[in-house]
Amino acid sequence: MILRREIRKTVSREARNIERQLFNKKPVCRLCHLRAFNTIVLSMRNTLLQRLRYQPSSLDISLHGLTEKQVKSRPIADKWSIFENLAHLARYHEVFTERVGLITSPGTPLFQPYKADNDPGFFAWQEKTYQQLMHDFYADRDVLNAHLASLGNEQLQGTARHPMYGLLNMEGWTEMFLLHEAHHFFTIIKLAAAINPNEVIGV
Predict the structure, then answer these.
(1) 164 found inside a domain
(2) How many CB atoms are closer than 10 A to CB 56?
(3) 49, pLDDT greater than 80
(4) Mean pLDDT throughout 9-20?
(5) 183 assigned to some structural domain
(6) Strand ranges in the chain using DSSP code E only, listed in sequence order
(7) How far is residue 96's CA from residue 177's CA, in Å, rounded to a whole number?
(8) Distance CA 147, CA 93 (A)
């Protein structure tokens, strides 16, 4: 099992500094406290930032004790494996990062529904080992989290349109990102139960 706390050691200093500013509950001085407070007020809602930071920790439970062979197996023949679900989510970090750049720029782009099966980048992620995929997933997530936390009010007001969900601003798109990810995390825990039906799921 690849633990998040081990992988986070490789995260960039910039990402760690931004997270520390936003989430440190014991600021070392009053000035630091005021700066952190101002950052939160002028940035994305803290509830979204907290979910971005902690939602992937559910994988510590659902993947606990699984081997690479099990993760890559398909307990339901015509459905993605756990590994394929993870590759999809890892690739979508990259897709969403590109979309964030467009949303926070002038204009209102139209984003078509993302289809992994038509994306060469999705298949590239499947070429990685399980360990490398998880390492890169967590590293990319920390960079994405830091970038979203650094957006100012004007950037958060940027919008893009989806043919089904309509016009959303940056926080709306972040909410959609989290809900999409949560759906796949739920799928992963169901697949883990199918792989090890007699095992207790949990750490």
Answers:
(1) yes
(2) 19
(3) yes
(4) 50
(5) yes
(6) 159-162, 166-169
(7) 8
(8) 12
**Which residue, 144, 170, 174, 147, is CA-closest to 158?**
170
Residues 189 and 201: beta-carbon distance below 8 Å: yes
Rounded Cα gap, residues 183 and 60, in angstroms: 16
Say how many C-beta atoms besides its own lie within 10 A of residue 89's C-beta: 22
* SS3 at position 169: strand
Domain count of the fold of the chain: 1
**Euclidean distance between CA atoms 108 and 110, whole angstroms:** 7
Task: Provide, for the chain, the percentages of residues in helix, strand and coil under a 3-state DSSP scheme, each rounded to the nearest 5.
Answer: 65, 5, 30
Global pTM reads 0.80
Tokens found for residue 100: 């964030």
CATH code where residue 53 lies: 1.20.120.450
202 in a structural domain: no
Locate 108 and state its tokens.
């209102």
pLDDT, average across residues 49-65: 96
Length of the chain: 203
> Which pLDDT score, from 0 to 100, does residue 43 have?
81
Domain residues for the domain of 145 are: 45-195
Contact 40, 169 (CB under 8 A): no
Give me 184's structure tokens. 């796949």
DSSP 8-state symbol, 168: E
- Identify whether 19 is part of a domain: no
| First CA to last CA distance, the chain | 10
Q: Distances from the Cα of 180 to the Cαs of 84, 89, 138, 201, in angstroms?
A: 15, 9, 17, 22
Query: Which backbone phi and psi does 80 adopt, to 5 degrees?
Result: -60, 150
